[in-house]
Amino acid sequence: MVKRTCRRSMLLLSSIFVSALALPRAADAQAVSVHKTDVHPGKDAAMPASRAAGNARPTRADDAVASAGAPATSAPEQILVHGAQNNGARLQHSGVAVSYLSKEVLARAGVTTINDLQRLVPNLQIEPAMGGGQPQFHLRGIGFFDYGSNNMPDVMTYVDGVAYPFGIMTQGVMFDLAGVEIERGPTGVASGRNTSGGDIDIITAEPTHRWTAGVMEDIANYARSKTDLYVSGPISRKVTFRLSAETNHGGGYLHNRDTGEHIGNANRGAVRGKLNWEVDETTRVSLNGHWAIDRSDATPGYLIKPLATALGKGPTIPADRDHYATGWGISPEFANMIGVSPDQKPFRNNQSWGIDLSLTKDFSWARLSAISAFEAMARREMNDWDASSSFEADNFFDSNVSVFSQELRLASRRQGPITWSTGMYFYESSLQDKMVTDYMSTHHFINTTRYGQGSQSLSEFAQMVYRPVHNLRIIFGLRHENAWKYLNDYYTQRSTLPRANRYDRFVGMDQVTGKAGVEYDVTRDVMAYFNVRRGAKEGGFSAVNLTTPSQIDGFKPEWLMAYEVGMKTEFFQHRLRLNGTLFKYDYHDQQVQSAIVDSVLGPVAKIVNAPRSTVWGVEGEMQAEPVKGLVLSQTFGYEQGQYNRFQIADLTATQAAHQAGMPWTTIYADMKNHDMGFPRLSLNGSISYDIHLPGRLHGYVLTPEADYSYRSLQRAVLLGNLFNIKPYFLLNTTLTVRPEHGRWSVSGYIQNALNRTYDLTRNYFTTANFGIVGPPRFYGARLSYTY
User: Fold this and answer.
1) Which pLDDT belongs to residue 324?
2) Which residues contact 160 (CB under 8 A, 6 or more apart)?
3) Which pTM does this prediction carry?
4) Which residues 6+ apart lie within 8 Å of 627 measured at CB?
5) Which of 86, 492, 716, 728 could be a cystine partner for 723, CB 3.0 to 4.6 Å?
């Protein structure tokens, strides 16, 4: 019934869209390109244009409310959607906290994966779950820990407006970019999916109307190399294309504590193709496709506590003083079960691909936009979570995921005091997942967990902007979402037992979210804003090795009320930009990785809901060019969260009170007023200076640059102090030479110049307590050439 209803809805949407395309074109309709919100005359003319020629994709800019033939002094407001190509100047007039990172900033900072963005954005943390390929996102403290493949993160990643609702899908998309935007706070009122934490919008480079090509080669110590290529140009007067590719190899900095063998080398490749067709001056079509493969080594951890192997019957491995030392090993039975050699190192063997079709149609009164997308991924990943040659916590993931999404939007274009946007969003996914765990050294068996998960959602949304006077905007938006998630044929099969029982589960969401806000232009260069947003995130399931059926009972959706006040300012003819934000979240039914106590088996892992918690914080961003060529940037983030109502199982007290042969009884710990543990302080900054060389070197520019990032202590509130991540400070330096008007550049760089040893994450699995160390000092060179 649900599937029939959703499919009928999508057929209706498609019919509406096709009918709209068939309508005669209004005489006064024309293609427009405006900004995220109100544009001041003359101001953005001084800013570098970031929108590539020939862009046909529905974007934040494309879904702007535009006046056909209206004077430039009175451009209407912008409705925020995903996938725009903007620059920092345009985002200055949007009443939400958004960080913009240009492709130049990303390149200089050495960003190669989405995880690296945490070094550039305030109050953003991205951890590799257990050191594997599942990222754990936290933005302004909103996020949760889960090493499984099946749950949607609190922070949604978009690539050119297409949502990537599974974290494992986000690990290979950072190449040939135009920029990245990170929006902090609940989103989904005007496009995309509902999220409680925020969005990361990855915007790839567009096809061009003139022929151009480029190559970039990056080489460093530890045999690390990265190669990027692209070619772009016109096929005809109305059709343009872009083809880009990247390979990434080497860079492994870990070694086996017993044999000295190295591990951690990358072996990745990806290709992307984009085709834009300007059918006429009011109709545009964009077809995009991509494919990627990842056959890298996995990154096992180091022991943060001695490991008594085989439950004390084997040798004890001391805690590692060398944080780059590790170990691995799998049992012959486990190797045979997953189809690899018994001496196989931890590995990844992932493939992903996708295709999306975007269309826009302009009328004199509105713009119609649609994005249809299909994404697929096959994940094969083996990790050694006991960090030793013992067979105690070796895991293999075999995940196959596919996602279809369809979005339809209609946005007003006429000039007037009221502008609006409305639309629908449909999403359907299928996941077939298997996890195999090697316990042969401790329990003499192997667990195989299998399940299928299907999910659907259907949303309707609308947003309106009312301008009673020229410098005041009142914003109101609503979204309704129905979501369904099914867990099918879930079981954990122990290799020594008969056929395990199968289970089915269901969880749903019916939520209304929204936004109300005010934006006020104090002057042309100073804007103040206030908004209240209600965000929500769907529920899900704890996809772990099953010991009791209650483990896979669904956890509820979470929701929050977000209050934000801020200012965005520019001074001295745009040489100084200062932005500041205060925020407070009332968090309800927060999804937390914890444990429950089964009356027969005792404590078992499960994601639970914390009824009430609070998060508040402050953020500041500064960009300055005090003298020509000297560029400074600084971000500041402070956040704090605490549980207001939350009782968890006190595992230590519960185990101490248990009597052998008797049912287990839960002893609870009250978490009221306990800190939520995320880093309170994050700092990021950079400085660069263009030196125009004299004499024989006249015409060349030398640019020294340095950037840094700092994260304060991250507390493992539910696991204990052993798993705290200590504060760390990272410094990177770069020296670049280029001709003033040339096509090439050469850079030398040092990443982690102070060679600080720091952890990306800490955790435990069965008998092992381990940490995942961050990269050591890398030094290398980067050469780029464009034609």
Assistant:
1) 97
2) 57, 83, 202, 203, 204, 288, 356
3) 0.88
4) none
5) 716
